[in-house]
Write a structure and sequence with these properties.
78% helix, 0% strand, 275 residues, single chain, rod-shaped
Length: 275
């Protein structure tokens, strides 16, 4: 026969059960199921304090910025690579510099080779208009065009580096932000151990699980940013070399009026006609 008091105790035991536990686990002191129920991302969101929420928000913002700049720079780099040879062929195959300038003006704003060529063409035209003036006396045609071309190359190279500083900063700081969340979670675990007086698994599982998740998030933000930074730095070096070669061809052409033969970029080999 079950006494009323016993029925009440049985009801209390049933109400204390958590998902994944049965009555025997609770009565025998088996806390493994209870510990597992306190681990996971949902427990992190439910039990994070202000410090943990700030650390998580910082990592979330870092992740959004990293993927934004990865996609932005990747799409721009692919577009430039697909268009650069056609842009240079358009310039060198034009019937006159004026036709070339008109065609280059139609290129999109992000296309760098057309902007460098336009800088060289405008500098040559400006110097020709200033012949007999003080500017033409102070700078030769070659020097004036060289300054314009260098400025254009530096500008376009700087535009290619957009977001690289952010990627490098996130790659170096995100693991430490995640580590800060880890330390804070371990600190919570120690507080719970001190408050309960025992180091059972159900006491420390939640804070330790929170700490491990913060570490994983920090690494998940840092690794893509470091890989993307290294890839874009390598790609930008290759693109800067093409800028320099094309700029030299432009300088020789607008300063002397003749193309330099044998260059890989910006020139073509013309076979002599057979008479």
């Amino acid at each position: 026969m079950m006494l009323p008091g016993d029925a009440g105790q049985s009801l209390d035991v049933s109400s204390a059960l958590l998902p994944g536990m049965d009555r025997l686990d609770l009565m025998m002191g088996n806390t493994d199921s209870l510990a597992l129920s306190k681990m996971g991302f949902s427990h992190l969101l439910d039990n994070a304090d202000m410090v943990g929420m700030v650390a998580g928000a910082v990592l979330a913002v870092m992740s959004v910025l990293v993927w934004f700049y990865i996609l932005y720079n990747l799409l721009r780099l692919v577009s430039v690579r697909m268009r650069y040879q056609r842009v240079m062929d358009t310039f060198w195959d034009a019937r006159s510099p004026r036709d070339a300038i008109d065609q280059l003006k139609a290129e999109p704003e992000y296309e760098p080779f057309s902007k460098i060529a336009l800088d060289a063409a405008f500098a040559a035209e400006h110097h020709s208009d200033a012949l007999g003036g003080r500017m033409a006396e102070a700078l030769s045609r070659h020097e004036f065009i060289d300054r314009a071309v260098r400025s254009g190359v530096d500008r376009e190279a700087g535009r290619l580096e957009s977001g690289l500083t952010m990627l490098a900063s996130v790659g170096s700081t995100a693991p430490f932000v995640g580590l800060f969340g880890t330390v804070w979670g371990i600190y919570h675990a120690l507080i719970r151990i001190g408050a309960s007086g025992e180091a059972t698994l159900d006491v420390v599982a939640g804070p330790v699980g929170e700490a491990l998740i913060m570490t994983c998030i920090g690494l998940g933000v840092a690794i893509p940013s470091v890989l993307a930074y290294n890839y874009f730095v390598r790609s930008n070096k290759e693109m800067n070399a093409r800028f320099a070669t094309f700029a030299h061809d432009l300088l020789d052409y607008f300063a002397t009026g003749n193309r330099v033969r044998g260059q890989r970029y910006g020139t073509k080999q013309h076979m002599p006609s057979q008479g």
